[in-house]
Amino acid sequence: MGDLAQEILAGEPRALARAATLIENGRATELLREIAPHAGRALILGVTGAPGVGKSTLCDQIIHLLRVEGKTVGVIAVDPSSPYSGGAILGDRIRMQRHHADSGVFIRSMASRGVSGGLARATADLAILLDAAGRDVVIIETVGVGQGEIDIVRLAQVTLVVLAPGVGDDVQAMKAGVMEIADLFVINKADMPGVEALEHDLAAWNRKALRTVASEGQGIAEVIAEVITVARAVHRAPLAKAEEDARIDHLGIAVRSLDQALKFYEGQLGLGVSLRETVAQEKVNVAMLPLGEPRIELLEPAGPDSVIAKFLETRGEGLHHVALRVPHLQAAVERLRSSGARILNEPRPGAGGHLYTFVHPSSTGGVLLELIQA
After folding, report:
1. For residue 172, what pLDDT is reported?
2. Backbone angles phi, psi at 207, to 5 degrees
3. Could you give all domains of the chain from N- to C-terminal order, each with its CATH number?
4. pLDDT at 84
5. How confident is the model at residue 80 (pLDDT cuts 50, 70, 90)?
């Protein structure tokens, strides 16, 4: 294990800062491979909600009480991107400034860089970093862009959706996705008019909410207690077992001719092609056909020495592989490798730019399995 990995596992703050920069710059694949097996112990708490509801102030108060209890905390604050530099605007870090000298609190602001869903591309890997470093609680605060912020549910064990009377979206107008991801609703700024109406709206969704006035520190202990209760009741999979939350991404079907195959899939089934491209390193031409969220990928050899060409020679056209999407690819790979599974390649970019790795059929019951980073 490298020196930096050892310093991270020891919880060294400067090492965490260096590693976080490497992760954001996409230069931490080997480092994550080393530290991922040590993740899986932290409580991952997601905090989302519309702008202006007081998410950062609420997080600041949660951090304070956790530190009073002797818990170490990591914070990933996903901020809007600066239109000039592309970096994080750092609004969340400023609101948590009182913790800057506390070695038991590590706060990292990340620019969303145009990624929808409320998170940044490197958020999941940064969560693994803080988890492996021994932080008791990792808080992920989303960017606060509104109704579309549902990606947090794939990372967090417990998700708070923060509302405030007269601020942000009316509950009845909020999309079902946002309402459904909440493990707990928090009505912040509960000293303002309109709290009862907001609670009434939530009751129509059969949802419970806790009141807080984060600026005064009111109701924070009750929120933490409820978070712990929910975490114990839900029994969410820890971060190091992300593969337990895997879902079907696509079915890969080997064909001799894309054009010929598309006469059936487009002409007869009415499916539309969302992308056609050539993956040079695999020597394969790909056509993607969405089926809702999953998709079919038709695979045509781009040369006689292509893996798909060899597959067609021995088995003919048909199912080539099954692909699962996982929230934390590197952690999944390390856990499978440690259990003796035969991993065919380190994670690398494939069709559509997604990171992927293959697991040999001898480890999966006879089917070539592809794992893709969500």
Report:
1. 52
2. -120, 140
3. 3-236 (3.40.50.300), 242-373 (3.10.180.10)
4. 39
5. low
